[in-house]
């Protein structure tokens, strides 16, 4: 089974998007910068995805135009209505050759102008392959607080719009605050010309990982396979059910402070900007028998803060990914608090760089130390741009040019990093950065007490740093959160959470 996410924007990928606008950018092993949905696919399915699992309108149009320039259409007039859906179909058909079942998610909402050619491709797929294509429509049923009654009209209207595009849903999944009742099932089935057993409830749940079990209780898988004419294979959800039951019984808590700048937008908190970090913390906490309580700290506000009692009260601090100069000094303050007060600290990518800058200023005495990304005139560029990245910035080539995807890292022996991974030697982790540790300062840092615990196989790039005489103080240039799964938490997050538990009990 292969999942595919189709996004309707004209970006070639999600790499150039602002996290505040779009949410987190997920990175696959092959370096694809994708929508965060691919991260959810990996976490739920326990599989590794790639560029073939991600299609954007920008990719499709780019290919169609490139083919036109190469006379691939034989001199014909190239029209969006004919050529764009055909290109989408060809991409999906290639995936069908590699898997018995391909699950394709169309992003956006029914009725949006930019979706039309993708829906047209879906309509043509149904004509071409008939019973081999199944349409599952996911719709929302609101319950206005002033009425207290679940309304089906928005979903009925979206079904009508789909019908107008030549698409007849075969199954409908109802998203709602509460589980849909039989009366509303019947109303929706009538509007969609389906049987009530084709209408499935997907209510809000405190634990998202219960969703597969809730849908399985309604026999959604069996209904899908029956309609596709496929035999149901043996399902093994014992481990999944067992972990869900374990989580529901957990009482102990740990308080994790996340210091970032991509989640405050107006009066709203956009946690999607750091969704992989949040999920990795959950996986590791549950495995350690505790429930994580996430406390958010806006790094810009920390810059002006003088009372840090709320930050000092957490059991562990994480500084995740980031770009640019905004909020940097607030992050550096948070690093110092973690280092000086022995609070377990995990710095991810930008978070590692902030740890290096803080140590340079406040331990090594390198006044004005900084990253050249933040201050190009810093007297001590302890973080600087990677040599091969300069040419891209000079040409304003930003999309898809940074260090991306899975790269090998040598974990050095007798370090907190090797303890976390359970071994020294070569590991593989995903990256997304243009700036790196400046090797000119390497010896000075090591003599001063910041240990380099991870390097590239040729030992030229610093991949991880740590402080030995601290309960847990680790920064990684890579993103371990991308590889954490529900049933297999990442080892580095497991070690971090274990340290927070020790802090709480000591």
| Terminal-residue CA separation | 47 Å
Supply the number of structural domains: 3
Can you tell me the overall shape? Answer: globular
The CATH class label of the largest domain is Alpha Beta
How much helix, percentage-wise, in residues? Answer: 25-40%
Radius of gyration (CA) equals 25 Å
What does this structure look like?
The chain is α/β, with parallel strands linked by helices. The longest helix is centred in the N-terminal third of the chain and has 17 residues, at 80-96. It has three domains: 1-133, P-loop containing nucleotide triphosphate hydrolases (Rossmann fold, 3-Layer(aba) Sandwich); 135-249, Rossmann fold, CATH 3.40.50; 250-505, 3-Layer(aba) Sandwich (Rossmann fold). The strands form six sheets. Strands 12-9-13-14-22-21-20-17-18 form a nine-stranded mixed beta sheet, sandwiched between helices. Helix 3 (57-69) crosses helix 4 and helix 11 packs across helix 19 (491-505). The chain is built from 19 helices and 22 strands. Strand 13 (316-319), helix 14 and strand 14 form a beta-alpha-beta unit. The two termini are 47 Å apart. The model has no long low-confidence stretch (mean pLDDT 93).
Topology summary:
Layout: E1 2-7, H1 19-22, E2 25-27, E3 33-35, H2 37-45, E4 54-56, H3 57-69, H4 80-96, E5 102-106, H5 116-129, E6 136-141, H6 153-164, E7 171-176, H7 182-192, E8 199-203, H8 211-217, H9 220-228, H10 238-249, E9 253-260, E10 264-265, E11 268-269, H11 275-287, E12 291-298, H12 299-304, H13 309-312, E13 316-319, H14 328-340, E14 345-348, H15 350-362, E15 370-371, E16 381-385, H16 390-394, E17 403-411, H17 416-421, E18 425-433, E19 435-437, H18 442-448, E20 450-455, E21 462-467, E22 473-476, H19 491-505
Parallel strand pairs: 1-4, 1-5, 6-7, 7-8, 9-12, 9-13, 13-14, 14-22, 15-16
Antiparallel strand pairs: 2-3, 10-11, 16-19, 17-18, 17-20, 20-21, 21-22
Helix pairs in contact: 3-4, 4-5, 11-19, 14-15
């Amino acid at each position: 089974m292969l999942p595919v996410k189709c996004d309707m924007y004209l970006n070639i990928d999600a790499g150039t998007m602002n996290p505040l606008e779009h949410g987190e950018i997920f990175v696959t092993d092959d370096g694809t910068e994708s929508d965060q949905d691919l991260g959810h696919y990996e976490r739920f399915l326990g599989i590794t995805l790639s560029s073939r699992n991600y299609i954007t309108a920008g990719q499709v149009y780019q290919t169609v135009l490139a083919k036109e320039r190469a006379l691939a259409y034989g001199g014909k007039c190239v029209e969006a209505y004919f050529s764009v859906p055909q290109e989408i179909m060809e991409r999906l058909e290639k995936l069908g050759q590699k898997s018995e079942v391909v699950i394709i998610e169309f992003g956006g909402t029914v009725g949006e102008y930019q979706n039309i050619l993708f829906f047209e491709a879906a309509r043509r797929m149904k004509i071409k392959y008939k019973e081999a294509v199944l349409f599952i429509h996911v719709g929302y049923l609101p319950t206005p607080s002033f009425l207290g009654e679940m309304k089906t009209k928005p979903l009925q209207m979206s079904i009508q719009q789909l019908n107008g595009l030549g698409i007849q849903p075969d199954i409908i999944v109802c998203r709602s605050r509460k589980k849909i009742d039989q009366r509303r099932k019947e109303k929706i089935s009538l509007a969609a010309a389906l049987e009530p057993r084709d209408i499935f409830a997907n209510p809000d749940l405190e634990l998202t990982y219960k969703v597969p079990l809730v849908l399985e209780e309604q026999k959604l898988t069996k209904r899908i396979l029956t309609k596709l004419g496929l035999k149901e294979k043996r399902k093994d959800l014992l481990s999944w059910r067992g972990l869900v039951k374990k989580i529901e019984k957990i009482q102990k808590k740990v308080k994790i402070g996340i210091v970032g700048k991509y989640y405050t937008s107006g009066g709203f908190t956009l946690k999607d900007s750091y969704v992989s970090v949040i999920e990795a913390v959950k996986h590791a906490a549950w495995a350690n028998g505790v429930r994580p309580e996430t406390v958010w700290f806006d790094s810009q506000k920390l810059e002006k803060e003088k009372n840090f009692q709320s930050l000092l009260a957490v059991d562990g601090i994480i500084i995740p990914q980031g770009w640019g100069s905004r909020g940097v000094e607030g992050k550096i303050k948070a690093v110092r608090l973690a280092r000086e007060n022995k609070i377990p600290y995990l710095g991810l990518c930008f978070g590692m760089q902030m740890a290096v800058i803080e140590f340079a200023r406040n331990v090594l005495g390198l006044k004005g130390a900084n990253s050249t990304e933040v201050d190009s005139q810093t007297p001590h560029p302890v973080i600087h741009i990677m040599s091969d990245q300069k040419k891209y910035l000079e040409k304003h080539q930003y999309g898809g040019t940074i260090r991306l995807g899975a790269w090998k890292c040598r974990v050095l022996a007798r370090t907190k990093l090797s303890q976390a991974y359970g071994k020294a030697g070569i590991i593989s982790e995903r990256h997304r950065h243009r700036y790196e540790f400046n090797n000119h300062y390497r010896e000075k840092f090591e003599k001063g007490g910041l240990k380099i615990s991870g390097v590239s196989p040729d030992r030229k790039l610093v991949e991880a740093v740590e402080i030995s005489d601290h309960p847990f103080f680790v920064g990684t240039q890579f993103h371990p959160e991308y590889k954490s799964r529900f049933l297999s938490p990442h080892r580095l997050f497991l070690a971090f959470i274990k340290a927070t538990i020790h802090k709480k009990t000591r």
